[in-house]
Design brief:
By secondary structure, the chain is mostly helical. 78% of the residues lie in helices and 2% in strands. The protein has 8 helices and 2 strands, in the order H-H-H-E-E-H-H-H-H-H.
Length: 210
């Protein structure tokens, strides 16, 4: 997948609680261990969903045609439906500005809790599971190897690790800036996600009718 496709999807993956959580964890008592555990949990769940979607897409892709449509077209149509769902879900939740109550407990989180949170949020949060499934299905439809998803996974993890990395490099300056970044992301991430989803919808439509 090209950078044009990977970067937007990675941004969708980290919108709202997914990026707010590592910001909170970066100021927790065990911030190094918590941040590492969160990113590791996320890496496992994202990779798992992408691979499963890819394998399912490949199995469907070998089935010839259905109702006059090629298997490749059906896979692109599946991606399109998933993206539309993600766009609707993001718009529906656009006014949810307050973070979940459980985020208030993140300053005293443990690495075990952080790992479970990363695994569940990035693997099974509705918008994320749709995005990861879209990536795996898209690669299967194009006949690309599943390893082409590595850029998408790594870029998502890098963004998730940014709060702790900035704290490690910049120290108190990063700690002072993180709350402002957190508030901005909480208020505006839905707009960014909608723009990104629309871009990928256009790319998918081009492949579908091409």
């Amino acid at each position: 997948m090209s950078l044009l496709e990977v970067l937007p999807l990675a941004i969708v993956m980290i919108a709202r609680p997914q990026i707010l959580t590592p910001i909170f964890l970066a100021t927790s008592d065990q911030w190094r261990a918590n941040s590492t555990a969160y990113v590791f949990g996320a890496s496992l769940s994202i990779s798992l969903v992408v691979v499963i979607a890819y394998l399912v897409g490949n199995s469907l892709g070998g089935g010839g045609s259905l109702f006059g449509a090629s298997a490749k077209q059906l896979l692109y149509l599946t991606v399109l439906v998933l993206l539309v769902y993600a766009a609707v879900d993001t718009y529906r939740k656009r006014n949810v500005s307050d973070p979940p109550a459980w985020m208030g407990k993140l300053t005293t989180a443990t690495p075990q809790f952080s790992f479970r949170l990363g695994f569940l949020l990035l693997g099974f949060f509705p918008t994320d599971i749709v995005t990861s499934t879209s990536v795996g299905t898209y690669l299967a439809a194009n006949g690309d190897p599943v390893t082409d998803a590595a850029g998408f996974v790594l870029l998502t993890l890098l963004i998730l690790a940014f709060p702790s990395l900035s704290l490690f490099v910049l120290g108190e300056r990063a700690e002072a800036a993180l709350p402002g970044i957190r508030d901005w992301m909480n208020d505006n991430s839905w707009l960014i996600s909608e723009a990104v989803i629309l871009l990928f919808v256009v790319l998918t439509l081009q492949n579908l009718v091409g």
